[in-house]
UniProtKB/TrEMBL annotation:
InterPro entries: AB_hydrolase_3, AB_hydrolase_fold, GDXG_lipolytic_enzyme, Lipase_GDXG_put_SER_AS
Gene Ontology molecular function: hydrolase activity
Cross-referenced Gene3D superfamilies: alpha/beta hydrolase
Protein name as catalogued: Alpha/beta hydrolase fold-3 domain-containing protein
Occurrences of domain Alpha/beta hydrolase fold-3 (ranges): 98-314
Family: Belongs to the 'GDXG' lipolytic enzyme family.
PROSITE patterns linked to this entry: LIPASE_GDXG_SER
Amino acid sequence: MSSLSSQTSSKSGGFRLSFSQHLSLLSLFLSLPFSIGRGVFALENRQRTWRRAIHDSVLRTLTSRKWDDVRVIAHGLDELEEGAALHWIGPRRYDRVILYFHGGGFSLPPSPGHLELLHAMKKDSKAYGGTGVVLLEYSLTPDHPFPTQLRQANAALTHLLVKGAKPSDIILSGDSAGGTLALQLFAHILKPLPSIPPPPALSAPLRGAALISPWTTYGVDSPSFSRNDRLDGLSKDFYQFLGDVVLHGVPKDELAWAQPLSADFAGLDKVVTHVLNIAGEAEGLLDPVNDIALKLERAGVDVKTMIEAGGMHEDMINNFSAGEGNRSESYRWLTKWLAEVYQ
């Protein structure tokens, strides 16, 4: 399996731990065995396997802390003009292609779970004729604030079209912040953001968009954030922390592009035909995910929303990280939807 190589930088503006942060890391890792022992017997893990219970307990412990940014440098295969890169999973293919935007709060690089998911998508696409799968490596916040990522997603879509892909053969997909990026790109196509290059002209609507736990608002006012705070892998405070990082310095007149729930999607049916919207019953983002589904439906798009029982934020990615990706109900939904949309 191929993977993205990464490194951290100790140069000014890069990643450097203070003495207090070193102590915080030490205390965190010393606490992990206790967190795992407590977590595997927790009420919220009663329906999960041992492996998922351990994985989720570690995740809850790690994301209960606030982290400084880590600058990650990956080495791409197709360099884009906007400082980003496209990583193909297997051979390039433009007659059918899934353009994937990874999650991580715009602050973290792709995880092993993301790469496992993409390889599974590539392999399982053979059942419906096969498809190209390509991952966008975008620049990370806070070193590269909004609209950097939207600029790079726009360049990625333009690149595929220039290479011969037809809009009707392209599906955008992404989890969490990656789902945000797909929705930001739709907003840009409908009404171009003046501070970045214009969107490509579409001769037809894109085939579809598969959104996995899309991060549609950077606030935490929706009831599901409080209701699921102890059940989700990410705490309410951590959602707010990541949201504050993204919104820092964003002008008010650009919020409609930065935050999907603030965007006007009128006319979206001319941009994309089908949307799959996946969320977990136990994630903080559940209400906003349902809200964006209603907004897209009102714009005339065929939207299918799937809520996984007991699922947390990015449950599909977590399953792949724990080595149980193919057992994920949400992944089966995704595979079935892709087959239906491409047939």
